[in-house]
Specification:
6 helices, 6-stranded parallel sheet, alpha/beta
């Protein structure tokens, strides 16, 4: 059975592209959200296997949405999809319980692996981010 995903991004063309990529890779996007607050509500209703959140969304950014989702669904598996590679965003996301942090520039290469790893309980960071964290620590 395909993993069920929630995809949240405020940019509709990006969301459509990501959905098409995910479905070609055998995932089922069961619901889409255009802002963080909608993502929280839909996650509570749909209980997807993995929740993909853009970092920069209106009403509630991806990290704040991940925090709220984790309070409602403690076992939630969340991944941030973003253009932001700055150390403080990665650390803040991990502290919020996010299990994956993917740079949009690496989505084609990383997305399927990240979803499977995160769904299995592991952590996934796009290449280059883990080295950045180690060097800052």
């Amino acid at each position: 059975m395909a993993l069920r995903l929630l995809l949240a991004d405020d940019n509709a063309p990006v969301r459509r592209s990501l959905k098409a990529l995910l479905e070609r890779q055998g995932f089922e996007v069961v619901v889409e959200a255009s802002d963080g607050q909608q993502a929280v509500s839909l996650a509570e209703m749909q209980r997807p296997d993995v929740i993909l959140l853009d970092l920069s969304m209106p009403r509630l950014n991806g990290i704040a949405a991940a925090r709220q989702i984790r309070k409602i669904i403690p076992q939630a598996r969340t991944i941030i999809l973003t253009v932001h590679r700055e150390y403080h965003y990665v650390i803040e996301a991990l502290e919020a319980g996010v299990r994956g942090y993917i740079l949009k520039s690496r989505a084609v290469e990383d997305l399927a692996t990240a979803i499977h790893q995160v769904a299995g309980g592991d952590l996934f960071l796009s290449r280059g981010l883990s080295e950045q964290i180690v060097h800052k620590a």
